[in-house]
Design brief:
GO terms for molecular function: hydrolase activity. Keywords: Hydrolase. InterPro entries: Class_I_gatase-like, GH, GHL6. This protein has a 9-stranded mixed sheet, with helices on both faces. It folds into 3 domains: 256 residues, Glycosidases (TIM Barrel), CATH 3.20.20.80; 218 residues, Class I glutamine amidotransferase (GATase) domain (Rossmann fold); 89 residues, Golgi alpha-mannosidase II (Immunoglobulin-like, Sandwich), CATH 2.60.40. It has 15 helices and 32 strands. Strand 13, helix 11 and strand 14 form a beta-alpha-beta unit. Helix 8 runs parallel beside helix 9, helix 11 packs across helix 15 and helix 14 runs antiparallel to helix 15. With 665 residues, the protein is an alpha/beta fold. It is globular and about 85 Å long.
Length: 665
């Protein structure tokens, strides 16, 4: 079967245009785009404004098109791009319409819980459940397809407009269409007004269903017209889209880009992922460039997890100064020059880390399990344990769980189909590390067989109750267990299975102040963790990942990573003599293994600074000596030796990142 263009590695460049940019020089833009190294151009087409001479009465034609001799920016861009071997994707945005169109069709509009329209800079927000999205958007798409041989569509802001561009919370849409549809879905429940409403979780499920159905209909419609058009479109995407940005006021989680790409690639390795890296620091500051090193991290993490990179700028190239494009271009061109090494890669880590499903829990509960996930993510990163993220909602569909030695489930329940998939993994010889209340149902019973507990007896999650409680190493503790760790987040008192082994000692609370009275902690018979009788399942009945995420003590990391390596067994996982700031990822294609090493030493609270070069070596279990080992960034072969089933690679200095290609015999 012939591959579509998006099923091969590609690089995109987005010019997000203002209405005043309709007269842009498309040849000059393509000069910049091709010099940068991109082979796909994403440009504005229709929706809020048409950048072509639309004849539809419910679409506003950009008045600045009069500056062009042709009166048609989209047409000029498609012709020039194809002449120069660049594909063109059309950006569509149906989230807003003009006031005039809104006045003619008030039934299309978003209506907030307060009964008011959502008006932003003279544009009126629309509702995905109403006819503008459900019907008229198809006519706009058809008008573009009828006129232009575009290579695909990107659908922007495809959602319910709960939050506006200024970050103001506007609530769930409460127009007549939404009220009626939600009532049918929920059995007559009232629409929520926000996250604190009792029906909000139901509304989240309903709204997700509306968008899924709509995106699938659009996908089918476009494919009937042009099967070769790639779609970036929520649930029905040919290309999964992630915007990498550094939103003002949001805590920066430094590996967010890599985690997102990894999750998609593990669940659906046949789906390409596009990471659209934002060149400015946030929407309110579109003219101010992001820090160069931060922008470059988006690209390094994208490549390391098997994604396709994209740069997103405002306006035509060169109109606004974005100095960061220089280093990004080097990365894009490096990948292009080594396209054979990057083709057909699939995730190949020996560890799977489950990411909690945000729709399977309340917002508060999900925040807790997400913190657990992030802490365990950091422990694996810094412990040089190559791993892949697997979304909880995708466990049942993930095609190759059997490649994993260990699967980690962090403080979250599983849907029945996911639990069945984990049960099969376990029956086939896989090992499990479970933390907190992972795989425990609402009644406190295990969802899986072979667990080291019978049930949860009580949950202690009151911060005051947990103060001055600890997990301590005892005489039987493994060598990776720290002598003393505080317990934070939650601790679950459990009834152990008959054949379970209890490890480490839980110390009950004692006085912690004043210092003269800070003593008296004693073992209370509760475990620090438990191991099943067959040694295949380890359960940590407290939130060790959340402890590391919130408290940062390296003992949490050592214990978590040590448990993973202990479960995997000797000679299974890669080891490294490297600083903890380097993350190692692993991908595979027929005949080759590719390691990426990302240098996080430049990590700052809200950005990345220049990294400190790091050197070292890795030791990789391998069945035979390889044909060769190359470092793509350094541009040379790596000194290596093969001893007793282990490949030892001497690494070049790693600045931002390195890619090591191991050619297998």
């Amino acid at each position: 079967m012939t591959q579509r263009w998006w099923q091969r590695p590609f690089a995109m460049f987005q010019t997000n245009l203002r209405e005043i940019d309709a007269g842009m020089d498309v040849e000059a833009a393509l000069d910049a785009i091709t010099a940068y190294g991109a082979d796909v151009w994403l440009i504005n087409a229709g929706g809020i404004l048409s950048f072509y001479p639309s004849d539809l009465p419910f679409q506003t034609r950009n008045p600045a098109l009069s500056e062009r001799a042709s009166g048609d920016l989209l047409g000029d861009a498609v012709e020039a791009a194809h002449r120069r071997g660049v594909r063109l994707m059309a950006r569509m945005d149906f989230s807003k319409i003009s006031k005039a169109i809104a006045d003619d069709h008030p039934e299309w509009c978003f209506i907030g819980p307060d009964g008011e329209r959502q008006v932003y800079n003279d544009l009126v927000s629309t509702c995905p459940s109403a006819d503008y999205y459900q019907q008229r958007s198809f006519e706009i798409i058809d008008e573009v397809l009828d006129r232009y041989p575009v290579d695909g569509f990107f659908f922007n802001w495809f959602g319910f407009n709960e939050v506006d561009y200024s970050g103001v919370y506007r609530g769930p849409c409460a127009n007549d269409t939404s009220r009626k549809s939600f009532a049918e879905f929920s059995g007559g429940a009232e629409l929520p007004t926000g996250p604190d409403s009792p029906t909000y979780d139901q509304w989240r499920s309903w709204s997700r269903g509306v968008l899924k159905d709509l995106s699938e209909r659009i996908h089918d419609h476009v494919k009937q017209r042009n099967p070769d058009a790639g779609l970036i479109l929520r649930d029905a995407a040919d290309i999964v889209f992630h915007e990498a940005n550094n939103k003002v006021g949001r805590e920066l989680w430094h590996p967010a880009t890599g985690a997102m790409v990894s999750g998609v690639r593990s669940e659906s390795p046949e789906l390409p992922v596009l990471v659209n890296a934002v060149s400015f620091i946030d929407m309110p500051y579109r003219m101010a460039a992001e820090r160069t090193e931060h922008f470059a991290q988006y690209f390094a993490q994208t490549l390391a997890r098997g994604g396709n990179p994209s740069a997103y700028i405002m306006g035509p190239p060169g109109e606004i100064d974005y100095p960061l494009l220089g280093q990004a271009s080097e990365i894009v061109r490096l990948r292009k020059a080594n396209s054979d090494s990057y083709a057909d890669l699939r995730p190949a880590g020996s560890i799977g880390l489950v990411r909690p499903d945000p729709l399977a829990q309340t917002l508060t509960r999900h925040a807790e399990s997400e913190a657990e996930f992030r802490g365990l993510y950091a422990a694996l990163q810094e412990g040089h344990c190559p791993f892949d993220v697997i979304p909880a909602e995708g466990l049942a569909q993930a095609p190759d769980l059997d490649r994993l030695a260990v699967l980690i489930i962090p403080d979250c329940p599983l849907a029945s189909d996911a639990a069945s998939a984990v049960e099969r993994f376990r029956s086939a010889g896989g090992r499990l590390l479970i933390t907190g209340r992972g795989t425990i149902d609402a009644d406190g019973r295990p969802q899986l067989s072979g667990m080291p507990i019978r049930r949860v007896l009580q949950t202690r999650d009151d911060p005051e109750e947990l103060k001055a409680t600890y997990v301590s190493a005892d005489a039987d503790a493994p060598d990776f267990a720290p002598p003393m760790l505080p317990v934070y987040g939650s601790y679950h008192e459990v009834e152990s299975a008959a054949d379970a082994r209890s490890m480490l000692a839980h110390l009950g609370a004692a006085r912690f102040g004043p210092p003269e009275k800070a003593y008296g902690n004693q073992p209370d018979g509760r475990p620090g963790y438990l191991v099943s009788g067959d040694g295949a399942v380890a359960l940590v009945p407290w939130t060790i990942g959340r402890c590391y995420y919130d408290l940062g003590l390296d003992g949490f990391r050592r214990l978590a990573a040590g448990l993973v390596r202990s479960l995997a067994g000797a000679g299974v996982l890669l080891t490294a003599e490297l600083d903890e700031c380097v993350e190692i990822t692993m991908q595979r294609a027929p005949g080759r293994l590719v390691l990426h090493l990302i240098n996080f030493s430049g990590r700052r609270r809200k950005s990345f600074a220049p990294p400190i070069p790091v050197s070292g070596r890795v030791r990789l279990p391998l069945s035979a000596a390889p044909r060769g080992v190359r470092a793509l960034v350094a541009g040379r072969s790596c000194p290596s030796s093969y001893v007793d089933g282990e490949l030892i690679i001497e690494l070049p200095d790693i600045e931002l990142f390195e890619a090591i290609v191991i050619e297998e015999k």
